[in-house]
Design a protein that fits this description.
Blueprint: E1 8-11, H1 14-24, H2 37-46, E2 48-49, E3 52-53, E4 60-62, H3 65-73, E5 79-84, E6 87-93, E7 96-99, H4 102-110, H5 118-124, E8 127-133, E9 136-138, H6 141-157, E10 162-167, H7 174-184, E11 189-197, H8 205-219, E12 225-232, H9 241-251, E13 256-260, E14 269-271, E15 274-276, E16 288-292, E17 295-298, E18 303-306, E19 317-319, H10 322-330, H11 342-352, H12 360-367, H13 379-390
Length: 396
């Protein structure tokens, strides 16, 4: 690809850069590049690309007056520098530029163009009306690092059956634990893709990553589980999310993808007057999709159970509702251990509320038994010990 110091620039954000890198690395194969007008229209209409289900065209249409001026005047063969956060991150050789219908594009992605939909609102803020196709190169070390880490673990363990699960873990709870253990019990290795959105949504990624790592390091065989940051860009949105999740997991080397039966992408939908499920579109993707029952805590069984196997009624069940658990944590309240393991809660709360207690060592000394030696205690350890006090039952 020709280049010079006088290239004009196209300005993209981190979300576009991440998605371009993901495709360039072959992780959404068979799509490996930007689509021109003819191919984009074909994919949008047929929902198929090279015999594989693919929900909408892969295009680049960055918003902004500068970008629009560049794209409306770009000539075929011109090389444009790709700029992200004031840094050159790649280049693109223009094949074709063409107008797109932004409302139609939003409906292809989300199934709606209603601006009250959070995904629609976020994408509208960054979607322009001129798309560009052509060969491109980008620099994005995170993607290559993910590939190397997974391949190194497969080589080290000799794993054949590799399961994957996509988690937001916002926050990580006991139901997540059960799904992971269920997958791991029949697999040689497991990849946990931890979603890393580009928009603020609940707990910060680093807090969620550390909490999940605590569980993996302390309670799972370390040589069988790897956590991979999964930058959850706009293409992994809406009712087509599960198809792209399956393609991503397959191309990373996984042989099975586990999803909950309450996953939004599993619902029935109508296509050409016939009732379908999403599974009708997986026959050409070489990965096994396994659904997992919803788990609840039953106050009669006194444990975590599947709603399919518990004989007791709904009024005996405590559900693992992520938003409600998150509200507790964001309010500084330790969730009951039946909902979130105390080590996980302690990890999250100590990061959310650093230096919360002015006299932490004094509180340790007042509340908890010790070795008799003066020891500095962390806030994380304080929450763990406090949770243990909550579990003392002789006075309740």
């Amino acid at each position: 690809m020709a280049s010079s110091n006088k290239n004009r620039a196209l300005y993209i954000d981190e979300e576009a850069l991440s998605t371009l890198a993901l495709v360039k690395a072959g992780l959404i194969s068979p799509v490996t590049g930007l689509m021109n007008r003819e191919l984009a229209n074909q994919v949008d209409q047929t929902k198929v690309f090279k015999g594989f289900p693919y929900p909408f065209a892969f295009i680049l249409a960055p918003k902004g007056n500068k970008n629009r001026r560049i794209l409306t005047s770009a000539a075929k063969g011109e090389v444009l520098d790709l700029i992200c956060n004031d840094k050159k991150v790649g280049k693109l050789e223009v094949e074709e530029t063409f107008e797109i219908n932004t409302q139609e594009r939003l409906r292809y992605i989300y199934g709606t163009s209603d601006t009250s939909h959070p995904g629609v609102k976020n994408t509208m803020a960054r979607l322009g009306d001129i798309a560009v196709s052509g060969e491109y190169e980008v620099e994005y070390p995170l993607i290559n690092d993910n590939i190397r880490r997974i391949q190194a673990m497969i080589k080290r363990t000799g794993a054949k059956k590799i399961s994957a699960v996509m988690l937001a873990a916002n926050p990580f709870n006991r139901a997540h634990e059960r799904i992971i253990r269920q997958a791991l019990s029949s697999s040689d290795m497991m990849v946990i893709f931890l979603r890393k959105p580009f928009t603020a949504d609940g707990l910060r990624y680093d807090i969620r990553y550390e909490a999940l790592s605590k569980f993996v390091d302390y309670f799972l065989p370390r040589n069988k589980v790897i956590i991979i940051p999964f930058e959850n860009s706009y293409i992994f949105a809406g009712y087509n999310e599960l198809i792209l999740d399956a393609l991503l997991a397959k191309n990373y080397g996984c042989s099975e993808l586990m999803v909950g039966k309450n996953h939004a992408g599993l619902g029935l939908y109508y296509d050409k007057n016939r009732i379908n499920t999403i599974f009708d579109r997986f026959k050409d993707i070489d990965i096994n999709i396994t659904t997992v029952d919803e788990y609840v805590f039953c106050d009669t069984c006194k444990t975590l159970v599947s709603i399919q196997t518990c004989p007791h009624g709904e009024h005996h069940h405590t559900h693992y509702h992520a938003e409600s658990i998150l509200k507790l944590i964001q309010s500084g309240i330790i969730p009951p251990s039946i909902l979130v393991r105390k080590e996980v809660s302690a990890s999250i709360l100590s990061k959310l509320f650093p230096d919360r207690f002015k006299n932490l060592q004094e509180m340790h000394h007042s509340f908890f038994s010790g070795s008799g030696l003066l020891e500095n205690q962390s806030e994380e350890q304080f929450y763990i010990k406090l949770s243990e006090l909550y579990q003392v039952t002789s006075l309740t």
